[in-house]
Design brief:
The protein is of the alpha+beta class and 213 residues long. The chain is built from 3 helices and 10 strands, in the order βαββββββαβββα. The chain is globular.
């Protein structure tokens, strides 16, 4: 979630031009292709949402919402979690990629509507106690590798916050997403940036081959 200076205000005008912008296409900063937040653009009381519902109905699997105040909120469900050793595991690479894309949507909104700072960026991950972390980039040992003995998270839930006086450019947005990735790794006892490629003689970069909508 990204909150601007006045998260209770009404900065954004929900007119036809706004709905056309919300519906996209939006550019994925990782692949350069268009994003796929969901199959439906849905209005809410004070927000416009792009959502993906499970076929059987129920809660949203993935969504991004733009509120009238300029708040941008992203939700991800089962795509960022999977079962491992009769417990839950979280997909680090997918979380970082979705955070990076959500921050990029806010960048577009700020450029379009002049949303004012300072800004507060928040990442919440629930149900983490006893869970594992996986979904690493190429070159790292993955969960299930007999040479990797993963550690579990000790916290029931995770809440990370970053305050910004000025909104960063695209390179700064990438670094902000990576900073959240670092903090996720720390919560599972990992100091390495396992969401980045780990190959001898090659620079560290995000593993876009493992990322798709």
């Amino acid at each position: 979630m990204v909150l601007p200076a006045d998260p209770e205000g009404s900065t954004i005008k929900f007119d036809s031009a706004f709905w056309a912008w919300v519906g996209g296409p939006h550019r994925d900063p990782i692949t350069g292709q268009k994003t796929s937040w969901g199959s439906m653009v849905a209005p809410a009381a004070d927000a416009a949402c792009i959502v993906e519902r499970p076929r059987s109905g129920g809660t949203w699997e993935r969504a991004i919402a733009v509120e009238r105040s300029g708040v941008v909120e992203m939700l991800a469900g089962s795509e960022v979690a999977f079962a491992f050793r009769d417990a839950k595991a979280f997909n680090l690479g997918r979380i970082v990629a979705l955070v990076w894309n959500a921050l990029t949507v806010f960048s577009e909104l700020k450029e379009r509507d002049g949303v004012q700072g300072p800004y507060l960026c928040v990442l919440a991950v629930t149900g983490t106690n006893g869970s594992f972390l996986g979904g690493f980039a190429d070159g790292w040992r993955q969960l299930g590798d007999f040479q990797l003995e993963p550690s579990s998270c000790l916290d029931d839930h995770l809440l990370f916050k970053t305050e910004l006086g000025e909104w960063p450019d695209s390179d700064g947005v990438r670094q902000l997403a990576f900073d959240f990735g670092d903090r996720l790794g720390y919560a599972w006892g990992q100091k390495e940036r396992r969401f980045l490629l780990h190959r001898a003689g090659q620079p560290e970069q995000f593993d876009k081959q493992r990322w798709s909508w």
